[in-house]
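Thread: "does anyone have the structure for this chain?"

Original post by V.I.:
We have the sequence but no experimental structure in hand. Need at least a predicted one for the grant figures.
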Amino acid sequence: MEVKIIEEGGFSYIEGGEGEPIVVLHGLFGALSNFKGVFDYFTKKFKVIIPIMPLYTMPIIDTNVKNLSRFLADFMDYKKISKAHLLGNSLGGHVALIYASKHLQRVKSLILTGSSGLYENTLGGSFPKRGNYDFVKEKVAITFYDPKHATKDLVDECFDIVNDKGKTVRIISLAKSAIRHNMANELPKMDVPACLIWGKNDTITPPDVAEEFAELLPNADLFWIDQCGHAPMMEHPEQFNEKLGNWLAKRFEYAA
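Reply from O.Q.:
Generated one for you, tokens below.
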């Protein structure tokens, strides 16, 4: 994704396109490149903005999902975004949900894919072992239905993270805070259009999690992608974009 990272106002982000804003929120091991397909496709009709969340720069004592939602609130204020579609994968979906629970009037829609907030089996139930490259590779592969998507670049990035003590402590803190912050009681109050796009073979936030989200959110539509794990926008970008594009066109009468 050949896009310049903008550094201003204490934030780092990329943006492109014109129109209504879609703010994209990455997950715990997420990178901007995870959303290349989304960015390239939706910048044709929307303004797509992807902030880099401060996963590794917050003070350890403040590293939790609530403070990431406050970061999102500050970012929305800085960018003067009065209302946006929020698209989140994994932890990013959880951040979007916490933000929506506090600022629902500023949320046009919720788009969740493999979101935490109800249940998540983070990294297959155990944290990758420092120094063990093969173990890290195995855990990264769990993210996908087809392990070919666990590229060397992705594994190398994860390996570097888990071998950095400061980053490791923060990731564990975020993962624990996500498990503690269950959203079940708050979801029924989020009466905005919600699009759930889920991998049928997701082992981190399994299909029954998607079904529970669909049951608890009062205005949700659930779409499945077969032979797909925890990151549908990476593993099946064309299907993901088609399903989301059609949903936005139907729900908001945008041109398909």
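V.I.: this helps a lot. Residues 165-180 form the longest helix (16 residues).
O.Q.: and The mean pLDDT is 91.
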